[in-house]
Amino acid sequence: MSLSVQGYLLLSAVISAIGLLGLLVRRNPLIMLMSVELMWGGGALAFIAFARHVGNMDGHAFAFFAMIVAAAEVAIGLALVVALFRGREAVDIDDIQLLKG
């Protein structure tokens, strides 16, 4: 049984919506980073679905680059969270302004 492009796009939209909801609702930086990763994953799934539908590999290349950007974003985000946690024992997104020199 094979899903149509609409099924993959619906799944992509649901994953992206869950990520957006998590980004807007939660105040923990780690949860916010995971929510952004969900949104990147939903976009990559849409690229791959369109590439499969059209029959070329361009969407796979875009999805690969999206995963590279997501990995770089996680590395920078986790470095900021660790820097924030070392200064204080609690991690809250409102404490990011304390990192200004």
Explain this structure.
With 101 residues, this protein is mostly helical. It has one domain (5-99): Helix Hairpins. It has three helices and no strands. The protein has helices at residues 5-25, 29-54, 58-87. α1 runs antiparallel to α2 (29-54). The longest helix is centred in the last third of the chain and has 30 residues, at 58-87. The protein is elongated and about 50 Å long. The protein starts with a helix and ends in a 14-residue tail after the last helix. The mean pLDDT is 85.
**From the coordinates shown, what is the CATH architecture?**
Orthogonal Bundle
Shape: elongated
Structural class by sheet pairing and helices: mainly alpha
Q: Any idea what the radius of gyration is?
A: 17 Å
The separation of the N and C termini measures 57 Å
Q: Which stretches are poorly predicted, pLDDT < 50 over at least 5 residues?
A: none
Record the SSE blueprint.
Blueprint: H1 5-25, H2 29-54, H3 58-87
List keywords for this structure.
76% helix, 3 helices, Helix Hairpins, mainly alpha, elongated, 101 residues
Briefly summarize what is shown:
This protein has 101 residues and is mainly alpha-helical. It is 76% helix and 0% strand.
